[in-house]
Design goal:
It contains 1 helix and 19 strands. The protein has 258 residues and is mainly β. The protein has a 19-stranded antiparallel beta sheet that branches. It is elongated and about 80 Å long.
Length: 258
């Protein structure tokens, strides 16, 4: 039995077999109990800070078990960062296949969006979802509610978000984020029924199926957003239309501006 305080504690460095266990950096109180006959372990930790597979949290509670047959079983993993709290349960098999469910809530998920290589959506959120796949090619699906959401030059007061992120942990993650809301503010003007879908890959944000309304007039567009340097964006508009009963205005050819 190990029961005490630690700094920089890594479960893969001699205490647990590294098969099916991610690299960790635990700082705080840890208890690990080894059952030699079964080759299994129980663990319980109350941490001041923790890093698991490169994901860093502050106050963290983690409880679970490891066995040679089943791998890692997380009964509780509660983590707190400035701006949000996340709760995770699930399994990581000896072959490093992940199957976990999670819940996250707070008013700043920028660290999470950056970790999964998705452009930051400023919003207060309450979401739940699932994480599956090998640790170097994870898929994350989530859905839930958002408030005061901001992205680029637009803001949505409240609505729902759905996201699917593939390839997390690899060199080329890809993401799809769909957002629907009640009211949109764009360049100081207010619109209703906003909807958009973000497809993110290779550093380019494809904004698809944008639509919003003002009275009986509907606006639609498709565009790409590409970072240019640290402080600039290039926007390529592929389609834009303003539709009013009895008439419509449409972009005749693609347009670019920076």
């Amino acid at each position: 039995v190990f029961d005490g305080s630690c700094e920089g504690f890594d479960l893969t460095q001699g205490l647990l077999p590294d098969q099916g266990v991610p690299a960790t950096d635990f700082n705080g109180r840890v208890r690990v109990e080894h059952f030699a006959a079964a080759g299994s372990y129980l663990f319980d930790a109350e941490l001041d800070s923790a890093t698991v597979s490169g994901y860093r949290t502050m106050e963290t509670t983690v409880r679970g078990a490891w066995t040679p047959v089943a791998g890692l079983q997380l009964d509780e993993w509660t983590m707190v960062r400035p701006g949000y709290t996340a709760e995770v349960t699930g399994t990581l098999s000896p072959s490093q296949e992940t199957d976990m469910i999670f819940r996250a809530y707070g008013d700043d998920l920028s660290y999470f969006w950056n970790y999964v290589s998705v452009p930051t959506i400023d919003a207060a959120v309450s979401v739940s979802g699932r994480i599956v796949g090998p640790v170097d090619d994870l898929q994350i699906n989530l859905n839930g509610e958002v408030r005061d959401a901001g992205f680029l030059f637009a803001a949505v007061d409240s609505g729902r978000v759905q996201a699917e992120v593939r390839g997390v942990g690899g060199a080329d993650p890809r993401a799809m984020v769909a957002l629907t809301g009640k009211r949109l503010t764009l360049v100081s003007r207010t619109f209703s029924e906003p909807h958009l879908r973000l497809d993110v890959a290779g550093g380019v944000t494809h904004i698809r199926d944008v639509s919003f309304a003002r009275g009986d007039t509907t606006f639609t567009a498709d565009l790409d957003v590409v970072p240019v340097g640290e402080d600039s964006l290039e926007i390529a508009v592929h389609h834009a239309a303003i539709i009013h009963p009895g008439e419509a205005w449409r972009l005749t050819r693609p347009a670019r501006f920076q």
